Amino acid sequence: MAGLIVAGLAGIPLWNLNASTFSGMIALDNFALTLIWIFAIGGVFSIALAIDYLPRQGIEEGEFYP
Questions:
Q1: What is the reported pTM?
Q2: Chain Cα centroid distance, residue 22
Q3: Strand partners, 21
Q4: Which of 27, 42, 52, 65 could form a disulfide with 20 if both were Cys (CB 3.0 to 4.6 A apart)?
Q5: Would residue 53 count as lying in a domain?
C-alpha cells in the first residue's frame, strides 16, 4: 500500500510535463498521470478491503496482491 501511495505522489512534480520516448510509444502527459492515480487509488482500496477479508476467508496468501 505504501508503494502505491509513493508512486502516486511521485507523479505530482510531473504534472504539465509532456514527454515521450521510443518514437512516441511511451508518453508522459496529464492523461497518463491521471490514469496512474486512478489505478493507484484502486489498488490502495483493494488492499484496504483485503486486509480484513483474506484472514476471514482463510486465504491469506502473498499471491493475492500481485
A1: 0.76
A2: 23
A3: 26
A4: 27
A5: yes
Arithmetic mean of pLDDT over the chain: 89
Assess contact for 19 and 27: CB atoms under 8 A: yes
Contact (Cβ atoms closer than 8 angstroms) between residue 28 and residue 17: yes
Amino acid at residue number 16: N
Residue 36 lies in a domain: yes
Count of domains observed in the chain: 1
- Helix or strand (DSSP H, E) at 21: strand 19-21
Residue 44 covered by a domain: yes
Q: Is residue 29 part of a domain?
A: yes
Closest CA to 17 of 36, 39, 37, 32: 32
- Helical segments of the chain, H only: 2-10, 30-57
